[in-house]
Write a structure and sequence with these properties.
The complex is a heterodimer of chains A (about 260) and B (about 425). Chain A has about 260 residues and is an alpha+beta fold. Helix content of chain A is about 25%, strand content about 20%. Chain A has two domains: about 150 residues, Alpha-Beta Plaits (2-Layer Sandwich), CATH 3.30.70.20; about 50 residues, Alpha-Beta Plaits (2-Layer Sandwich), CATH 3.30.70.20. Chain A contains eight helices and 13 strands. A four-stranded mixed sheet of chain A has the order 11-1-13-12, with helices on one face. In chain A, strands 3-2-6 form a three-stranded antiparallel sheet, with no helix packed on it. The termini of chain A are far apart. Chain B has 13 helices and two strands, in the order βαααααααααααβαα. Classes of the chains: A alpha+beta (about 260), B mainly alpha (about 425). Chains A and B meet through strand 3, helix 4, helix 5 and strand 9 of A and strand 1 and helix 3 of B.
């Protein structure tokens, strides 16, 4: 065989062989099933309805295997107390896992601060969870790609690949990330991805007795939460960071951090 | 116990998941890479810009920079929750992350320093190799050295004039390429912090520049310090032997050499200190003047809670006092030692105030966190993230240098240079 022929045949062989292999890649059934252009998970929190019972936090910890007594949590509830002199007090003892059992405010190392009822101008509760941002900074900064965004918008962590550098924890403006005390990798709220992908609600939504938490599909205009977000005045947390959070709040007050 | 809970003290309104996640090891990481970058830049001053009088210290700086290299990796590995997975950064680098390129930048830099070192010492390696091979009765240490030299000479035996000129050319090119890479290696450590938009104290485009300049400051200070210590040791030895051996410098010659090298290097140190202080002050003034939302809490940190650490330890003891010491005329090696020690301390405090200070306030801007460094290690974690781990990282470069110095003598005792 001449050299010219050899080269020619080689090229034909390589091109011919790569075509079917490439085709295999194009129709990866897993990818096809995962791509859902009609689905984008979103969350709606109605702060008017939250009473700070902490059932959501309890349910989340149990459902997602976050050690019950560990001082980290995937979701938590904050209490804001605005005094008549304009002073804002806020706390979230143990992430409000046990609810708010006293009117005194937890000031960390400073102890509990008593507040007289007549000094209070307004007070309210704000549940917090991962905002599953459209532009998640945590995904951007992960050096190994262990944290990633699914096609339907949820940000997840691969526990088998995370190196535990903590960069994602630093990058999150909402403080939703932490190191799992057992697995020693980054951990966060997943919108109970294992449940919502099977047609169930998240643990916190299911546990809320007052319907303060709702999850739904933002791409479906008929979805109850899409309707609220489209038609009512809703807010998001810290939009100045440009992360485009997908957890929407009804009745968000300027004191909320 | 949750990671970080042991050494984090929370005050007022802090979110449940917030802790000091990046502690002493991450303070040491930019400190150590800074020393490497600084030492390399100093050695390049001679090789690239031909500052002839820095010849002695330049060679020393290069060897020291090489000894520091593995120590830049160590704090990063120690702070990982999964240290065994550290290699993942090289296997699946996710290039939108500032950390992901670390492996590549670091390895590039390591290759440059290693090859420059090889070219600088090639002639020395071959000469020693030849003389050792001719030597009939070798001691165990000499046999070991012979073995090492045989491997690292890479089969090169050419000592012709032509080959030596080629060496010099290669050194010049490598040192020239090395400067931007060294600056990149460290500027990029600054970028890792400066690009965290969630952190109000870290997020500033000045961060990489501040890091580079303070890196050069600390690197030069460390080189001067080690150089003086090493020369003093040699001076003592020369005095005892009273210069009987041929080829050895006398105590007096050492003294002249020391004072010229130190005086000139101190000038460069001053220059970079002025730059560093200017940039750091610019950062604070700019923050105060623009006074965006985060300024209230940052002001409370800078002027309140961390006042002692920032203005007394960092600026006064670490900047102002050594600055005056260096500026006063007729600098002596002893005064230079004191000044350099203070400068090194000042740069360390700067890293501390950036890394720990950046985590001293909550994302709520309504609470504070305080880092209590574990002094007595009670577990692997408190060792790694406490005083023990810090000392380990601090001591290793000197141990490495001790052994490297046997292979690449940083102070070649030859009169004809």
């Amino acid at each position: 065989m001449k050299r010219r022929d050899f080269l020619k045949n080689s090229i034909v062989l390589v091109a011919g062989a790569s075509l079917p292999f490439a085709a295999l890649d194009w129709i990866d059934p897993k990818e096809l099933l995962a791509a859902r252009p009609d689905l984008r998970w979103g969350f709606l929190v109605d702060t008017h309805r939250c009473v700070g019972c902490g059932f959501c936090v309890k349910a989340c910890k149990k459902e997602n295997g976050i050690p019950y007594d560990a001082n980290v949590t995937r979701t938590w509830v904050e209490r804001y107390v605005v005094l008549k002199d304009g002073k804002v007090l806020a706390d979230s003892p143990k992430g409000a896992r046990d609810g708010f059992t006293t009117t005194a405010i937890d000031r960390g190392a400073e102890g509990m601060e008593k507040v007289r009822d007549e000094d209070i101008a307004k007070a309210f509760f704000v549940p917090k969870l991962c905002n599953q941002c459209a532009k998640p900074p945590c995904v951007q900064v992960c050096p190994v790609g262990a944290t990633y965004q699914t096609a339907d918008g949820v940000v997840l962590v691969d526990r088998s690949w995370c190196i535990g550098c903590g960069y994602c924890i630093m990058a999150c403006p909402y403080g939703v990330r932490f190191f799992h005390p057992v697995y020693h990798v980054a951990d966060k709220c997943t919108f109970c991805y294992h449940r919502i992908t099977k047609g169930m609600k998240t643990a916190c939504v299911g546990a809320c007795p007052f319907g303060a938490r709702q999850i739904g599909n933002l791409r479906d205009p008929a979805d109850p939460i899409s309707r609220v977000i489209l038609t009512q005045r809703v807010g998001v947390l810290k939009d100045a960071f440009g992360t485009e959070p997908q957890v929407y709040y009804l009745g968000l007050s300027k004191e909320v951090r | 116990m949750v990671h970080g809970e042991l050494w984090t003290m929370k005050e007022f309104f802090v979110l449940p998941n917030e802790y000091i996640y990046w502690s002493i090891q991450i303070v040491l990481y930019p400190y150590m890479t800074g020393l490497i970058a600084g030492a390399f830049v100093l050695s390049s001053l001679y090789h690239v810009f031909g500052v002839e009088r820095l010849k002695e210290i330049a060679r020393f700086a290069l060897v020291f920079s090489f000894a520091l290299l593995p120590v830049a990796l160590l704090p990063l590995l120690l702070h990982l929750q999964q240290p065994l997975r550290g290699i993942n950064v090289l296997m699946t680098p996710h290039f939108t992350s500032a950390i992901s390129a670390f492996g590549i930048v670091f390895l590039t830099y390591a290759c440059i320093v290693a090859s420059e070192l090889w070219f600088v010492y090639r002639a020395h390696i071959i000469t020693t190799l030849n003389s050792l091979e001719l030597q009939a009765d070798r001691r165990a240490g000499e046999s070991l050295l012979l073995g090492i030299y045989r491997v690292i000479s890479l089969g090169s035996r050419d000592l012709s004039e032509e080959a030596l000129t080629a060496d010099h050319k290669a050194i010049k090119i490598l040192a020239g390429v090395g400067i931007p890479v060294a600056c990149f290696l460290h500027g990029y450590a600054g970028f890792i912090f400066g690009s965290v938009k969630a952190n109000a104290l870290w997020m500033t485009p000045l961060m990489p520049v501040i890091f580079i300049v303070s890196a050069i400051v600390s690197g030069i200070a460390l080189c001067i310090l080690c150089y003086i210590v090493a020369i003093e040791l040699r001076k003592g030895r020369a005095r005892r032997k009273s210069g009987t051996q041929a080829g050895m410098l006398s105590a007096e010659e050492y003294r002249t050499l020391e004072s010229t090298e130190v005086r000139l290097t101190c000038k460069y140190l001053l220059l970079f200190m002025v730059l560093a202080i200017t940039l750091e002050l610019l950062d604070i003034i700019f923050r105060g003047y623009t006074a965006v939302k985060s300024w209230d809490i940052i002001r409370e940190i800078i002027y309140g809670r961390d006042f002692f650490k920032i203005f007394i330890l960092q600026y006064t003891i670490g900047n102002a006092i050594p600055f005056i010491l260096l500026l006063l005329p007729r600098i002596t090696p002893r005064r230079a030692v004191v000044a350099c020690l203070l400068v090194l301390f000042g740069v360390f405090m700067m890293r501390w105030n950036v890394v720990i200070g950046g985590q001293a306030f909550s994302l709520t801007f309504a609470g504070f966190m305080d880092y209590h460094m574990p002094l007595v290690p009670t577990s692997l974690e408190t060792f790694k993230e406490g005083l023990g781990g810090a000392l380990l990282v601090g001591v290793i470069p000197f141990v490495l240098f001790y052994y490297l110095n046997k292979i690449f003598p940083a102070f070649l005792e030859e009169k004809a240079h």
